[in-house]
## 1
Amino acid sequence: MLASSTPNILIIVAILATVGISGVAFMRLRKPSPKSAPETTSAPASSANDAHASVAGNEVAVSDSGSVAEMLEPKAKVEATEAGSEDTAVIDEIADLKERTAKTRGVFASAFAKVRGRSGIDQDTWDDLEETLLKADIGIGLTTRLLEPLRASVKSGEIRTADDLINALRNGMTAQLATTDRSLHLDATVGPNVWLFVGVNGVGKTTTIGKIATAERAKGTSVLMAAGDTFRAAAAEQLQVWSERSGAAFVRGAEGGDPASVIFDGIQSAAAKNITLVLGDTAGRLQNKSNLMEELKKVRRVADKAEGTVNEVLLVIDATTGQNGLSQAREFAAATDVTGVVLTKLDGSAKGGIVFAIETDLGIPVKLVGLGEGAHDLVPFTPSEYVSALFE
Amino acid sequence: MFDSLSDRLQGIVKRLKGKGRLTEADVDEVMGEIRTALLEADVNISVVRDVVARIREQAIGATVSEALDPSQQIIKIVNAELIAMLGGETLKITYASAPPTVVLMAGLQGSGKTTSAAKLARWFKSQGRQPLLVGADLQRPAAVDQLRTLGNQIGVPVFSEPGDPVTTAERGLAEAKRLGKDVLIVDTAGRLSIDEELMREVANISGKVKPHYTFLVVDAMTGQDAVSVAEAFHERLAIDGVILSKLDGDARGGAALSVKTVIGRPIAFAATGEKIDAFEQFHPDRMASRILGMGDMLTLIEQAEKVFEADKAEEAAQRMLEGQFTLEDFLEQLQQLKKMGPLSGVMGMLPGMPKEMKNAQVGDDMVKVTEAIIRSMTAEERRKPEIINGSRRTRIAKGSGTEVSDVNKLIKQFTEMQKMMKRMGVMAQPKGKQGKGGKPKINKRQAMRELSDMMGGAGMPQGFPGMPGLPGQGQDPGMPPFFK
């Protein structure tokens, strides 16, 4: 039959077409009275959905905004930690991240305590470590890659105690997150700076924009939000609430309208009003929907054409995401040249370990971490803190 | 992205072939691969341990059969085990004798509660019920607006009032009684399972409205944490069933297995698309092969059904079987196919695709090239490729920006395909019967079997060593399992 074993498009297409055709026809045959397919005509049937973490209360902690602004200057902070100089502000933030992920520490802490409690390093030690890493959604591939060199070190006698082993693992994990520049690029001297937010449904894009707007407004930056999610019901309203809270300008289009033109209009409007930063929201979309990914590519292209500079495309990833996060990062990066990841909902019980694979395999740095529902619950990501929070 | 279990096992099995007996180490290796496959699918590690132990037990007992290829045998065991674990009791909705039947939706932020609530309302409506939606998510800005918009789309009223979610839910119940609605669906705010205060709040809502069904909405992309979330919600609310959202993504959805195993409640519904009607009762068998990365034929066919225009497709199938399938038809099918998403994704759903083919860059660029070549042909050439001579080939290559050899290849392969189709058409003809006008009439049902046999059944063409017809093999060898 299909003798040629070399993969070729025609055969594949033929097969797929056959599947399609026979499937359709067969289904039809099975259904004697095929419904005349009254497709729901109204297009915007909100995608998977709600998400967008809610805000605790209506009051935004404006009093807190000084530190909020600081939180969003990760560059300085990263440099400080790297230099090893223990700036008090940095310590505060570390304490903050640790304290606020404290609720979820249980499993890890107890697993490591178990490892430490054993007299030596045995099979159970390795099993415990592996399980701990897997539970954090680090993935079996990377887990094996992390543990392999440690096994060798233990074998060679380089590592003798459980404490050393845990420390070595911690260093190994921190080393995976080697990007040095995690800053959000903002240049007030050029036209509007554009930051686009992309991701699957329900990860918290809109909420993240609200938080960033609040922080940037508090720093004195002029901000405009462009409601590029024209698909999900009431997405623009959700963003508008945030614009009112943060005092950012707001541009929206018609529901079901073209998202690219909303973003374009937003940037043009910001340019006309001398607004420094445009935050562009986009509808959540699953990365395997090619038509929606094409739409996103168009948003990106059109944004480039407007009178501003797109200097951040931030992929928002929910910490509860499992191994699919890697596929999300790959596809969104291919479509829009993602510049960084925002890891949201890290205040829950999930650890967000998929970011290790995203950063090592795809080289996309994690830039921000969402730790709660309030406007000030977005902090810069620092590898050592994050790994510490996992370990302690 | 990840290798399917069959790919993983194929390698091992090749090595094991010729070995008379499997050693303990061989079994370990196979189990290791199963473990990896399940972990890559986000099945919780504790659950994985459990599954692997069960499978090992069965595998050891079952390695005697000579009839089946050992890898097929193992996969059959794994698949059957997963189906058993995912399935079991199904949730049958019974309606309260004193209406309304109250349904409470709960879950993490972003899991898809609001959309699922609307989809569920539509489902109840399609069952002849009259639902009322209550928006008790008063936290997320515009959540109630979202519910109202969705309610409008499906023609289901929405009740909500600002203030306290518990009171809103209670008032919603009273409203449903007043309006004589027989189903009440309460949408609640997303909350973290470890947030004491908010968990207490949802428990309060539950206490007030006394739901007959409490559904936990779980994102199909959830990782290891799915278990702790499900446990926490189950403890507070006594979950009756799970709604698996965003199943139209490319996540393997191991969370479904984890949650089902841990709380022991069935997965009642699955959301399979963005459209409001993309919501259906859960199929454990499809989920099992999906978790194992072995393709999901039925979903593929359903996707195809959505995008392929039924009339055109049937016509094309007819012509295909009569051997009159032209390049024109092929181009048409190509267009339809493109609507189904990136080819690699579609391919991933095909069971038994050999690894080499899956890994080959069947980028959509290749589709483009093929398209370009066909588009550079005249209408006559598309209908009768045999008239394409040397100079025509050069012209087509020039017109499509390809090499003559590409054109040659396409034509050659198309001719082969045509022959194959024709052969199948002949096979599908009922003996001795002639249709109207003396034209041989094709027995459609038979023909469709032939076509689908090619795909899922044992009749997979050579060069596609895969796993023929996985679940429920052997009952009717002619038919792929999902048509039974």
Note: The two ends of chain B are 31 Å apart (CA to CA).
## 2
Amino acid sequence: MRHEIVLLVLILMLLVFEIFTKTEQKKSLIYLALGLFAIHTISGFFQSTDGVLFGGSYRTNELIHFFKNILNVGVLIILLQSVDWLEKVAHYNKLPEFFILLFSSLIGMYFMISSGDFLMFYIGLELSTLPLVALVAYNSADIKGNEAAIKLILSAALASAISLFGMTFIYATGGSIFFESIATQLTVSPLAILGLIFFFSGVAFKISLAPFHFWTADVYEGAPIGITSYLSVISKGAAIFILMTILFKVLPVLSVQWKDIVWGVAVLTMFVGNLFALRQNNMKRYLAFSSIAQAGFILMGIINAEQLGASTVIFFVMVYIFSNLGAFGVVQAISNATGKENMDDYTGLYRTNPMLSLVMLLSLFSLAGIPPVAGFFGKFFLYTAAAQKGYYLLVFLAVINVTISLYYYLLPVRAMFLRKSDDAIPYFKSPVFMRIGLLLAIAGIFVLGLYSPVYNYIEELSKLL
Amino acid sequence: MDILTLFVVVPVLTVIALFFAKDLKQSRLISVVGMTVQLGMAINLVFAYFKERASNTDIMVFTRDLEWFKTFNIHYNIGVDGISVALILLTSIVVLAGVFISWKMEDLPKEFFISLIVLASGVFGFFISIDLFTMFVFYEIAVIPMYLLIGIWGSGPREYSAMKLTLMLMGASAILLVGILGIYFNSNADGGPLTFNILQIGQVNIPEAAQNLFFPLTFIGFATLGAMFPFHTWSPDGHASAPTAVSMLHAGVLMKLGGYGVFRVAMFLLPVGAQNWSTFFIILSVIGVVYGALAAIKQTDLKYINAYSSVSHLGMVLFALLMLNKTAWNGAILQSLSHGFMTALFFALIGMIYGRTHTRDAYKMGGLLKTMPFISIIYVIAGLASLGLPGMSGFVAEMNIFAGAFQHPDTFHRVVSILTVSAIVITAVYILRIVGVMLMGPIKDPHFEHLPKETWYERVGIYLLMIPILGIGIAPLWLSNMIMDSIQPFIERLQ
């Protein structure tokens, strides 16, 4: 419970500080919030106790605690990368709201992954989504942002309604909303399968699996880049974790059915994400489709349905957080400095901004799954998880997709490294927080892959799922 | 630190040092020092290997085993036998020669040498690995720098060629990955634990159904890098667009990973699959041999000629491997080595010629023997080695291949062997014709009358490659012995 309480205190502190800060000094709230969140992140790494609260609605153990830590690190990197943007673009009178909304959404994620019944799960899901809608429209003068927010709220409302519908079916057949009781009482019946399908579709919206991905590209493009990063890594990561928990632990009776669904959705998601990414020019849309495709890969670990699958999924989510934040960080740095967000603008970037290009290169290589960066290990383990259960055809389709994805992951590389341009973005010095953020992402990309104790630790923890 | 890990550590250290280099002079100095150390270590390894072999009868020597990812039983597991030692020596020579040939790399020199040496470290790592996962990691590390090397420093349609090459090779490696996973999940067929260790899987009899399924995946995965027909199309475009040193390294070393992988992984671990599939792949490899040679005749661009000639020569390596007997395999390894030195030499010479005449069209040049005697004479020697003249490395290799091929008494093998032999005649045609057109005869262009002489660094690069070609040709026995001993355990798997 420590994560939730500390973050709640943090939100209250920000509210209080805001009252006592003069308008001219509101900027200092950025550093205050950043500092407090950094302390929160570090404090998360101290030992915690397992436990159950509210009669089983809320549970926590070492694995859940660890996953919350991963989310914290991700959010910390996002905040570091957003400092510059907040200073420049944001309206100072709305500054605390940015942090308060972001942290509320994060608390929602905490509750969601800690949930022990469908009620808590639903509360967490809503709490994590609603503040995000406000954040997407944070820059209220931006028409695209507003459009994105409307799209997000409509599809999110639909999605949560659908998954709520599915939960009622599961309740009707399982006789309980508590995960543990459902797991023992549920039997295979058409109603239960229908419940599974509805529930899965609702969560699939959140993870933007095909065919529930249509909101993704528009929302990613319209939202501020920091929020886009948050949507694509934190929100997605948390939803995957809870989906995995529920499929593995609550609905094992229906595993035959949900494995079929996951198989089909995985293949569809990979192909849709990869094929649509081929022709994108806006970097945010490009990374949106890339992240759709990545979610398809993650399903290969879920289909394993055992401890190996769980550990590979959690590991890959970690790798994915760092890789994607590296890429989004560079997009944000360039957007802050020049306002340019298209791939064409990156032409000749290496010759003017070598370090940024290098970070982008490594992040894209990690997303594409090229060694020695961590993405390769993450993907390899996911293949292994699927192949262990004999899903060779799925692995084969996945490697075809990896080859397709390599093409578009090399496109920015081509623009940055291979081409020269007279009007390339001139050299600029990134602010210090941005550099720390990028450095953390790159360090994560290297350490996760080559330093095997991280994976072994996750493997050990995933027994607790 | 053990003697083999250093082969990866030294390039990595060189790359790190290169990050701090400021200009061309510093970059090339660092690269030369690093790669000379590497060559010294390779020569030392040959002697150390002979010494160790006298007392040690294991398949692999200098082994070292460190656990990496416990769950999957992935190890950092290294060791060498005679074949890998020979290929390591080849690699270190070609890389050093490549560094000398790139002495005047003006555009982004630091990045060029970094990419080149990252590629080399992948190749070295590949040759020392005896764990499938580690091997695969190094394989990909060796392939991906090609994209930057061709894309940034290449010529002609460089973006197209770089993308084509990368996608085809990475696509092949993706297929290979399925094969490797298939082998991994069948490695407990005899009741042991799942493992990626090649030597341990070598003791296991994987069920025939699985072998038939995964052999073609593994074979195609590796053989694409060995330019097997019809997956060879990346090679001519890639070579033609690549800068000189990269063509050298690619044709000389990187393509050898294909044959080595087929031999070490596909055939050793899936012997039954190899026998069942051999007819099909023999046909493909023969088409590659003949088609590559015929295509080379039609070309006028020197780089395309050599690229197609590589398709033909490496098709012969695959052909020899598919003969599944000791003599032919010995020939295959020798051919890999000989082709490695010879093609690297060819590409180095083409780079030098192009640097002076600014054309690669053989029919626009003429009488180069009069204006560039040194380069021309070496070109003739390389050509003679390529068509298998006795006394050069190519002859020894091809002799062994055909001696092995004719050990099969059946009609099918006879026919394909004769077809493959015919490719040697075609090779003679295109080599001698180019020599005639380009080097002999009158000088066609007055600009070519006064061309700059070869420089000292070019000479060093050339000599580095010349010595082994003649060395293998004149005294093949020490090498042959080293290889033969190492082939023995692999051939026993097939019987």
Note: Chain B has a mean pLDDT of 87.
